[in-house]
Specification:
With 172 residues, the protein is of the alpha+beta class. The protein has 5 helices and 7 strands; from the N terminus they run ββαβββββαααα. The longest helix has 12 residues.
Length: 172
């Protein structure tokens, strides 16, 4: 969990239907950018609607960010924006069970964050959501030319259709 953007909301103060808006200040954005290996994070904002049923809190909303990553090929800056919905469940930390116990996950389990029973950390969950939405291999406009220059084939040139085309062309 990314602690650089901690916004803890006490469970006893969360009301069903409450709307929350959070925005990272310059220092928080700097820590998140460093943690995510970004060149910069110029904007990180989120709004969420909270639903609470006992100790379970559901946060649904949208994250918006402006950031700059480094191209994996050239190292050049790649500016990008994030504008994505999120749906996160905050559940109480599970009690210690048997280590031999099998756990089966379903799709809805993937956006679950555990809390300590006193508060949820919406900010850290938002930062984690941003991290998961980043392009793991950002490429600048000049990346393809740089790859071609050093002899790296594109997917079209190296794929099975290209291999079959070469075989057909080499037949007498």
């Amino acid at each position: 969990m990314i602690e650089a953007f901690a916004h803890r909301l006490p469970l006893n103060q969360i009301r069903d239907g409450e709307r929350v808006e959070i925005s990272a200040d310059e220092a928080e954005r700097g820590r998140i950018a460093e943690r995510l290996d970004l060149r910069s994070l110029d904007r990180l904002e989120a709004h969420a609607s909270l639903e609470r049923k006992g100790e379970i809190v559901r946060a649904r909303g949208r994250i918006k960010a402006s950031l700059c990553q480094s191209c994996v090929v050239t190292g050049e800056p790649v500016d990008t924006h994030a504008d994505e919905p999120f749906d996160i469940y905050f559940l109480p930390e599970p009690t210690a069970g048997s280590s031999d116990e099998e756990v089966e996950l379903v799709g809805s389990d993937c956006d679950v964050v555990f809390h300590d029973g006193s508060a949820i950390d919406l900010g850290s969950a938002i930062a984690d959501t941003l991290a998961l939405g980043l392009d793991p291999y950002p490429r600048s406009a000049g990346a393809q030319a740089a790859l071609k220059e050093v002899g790296v084939l594109s997917e079209e040139e190296a794929g099975p259709i290209a291999a079959l085309a070469k075989l057909k062309l080499s037949e007498p």
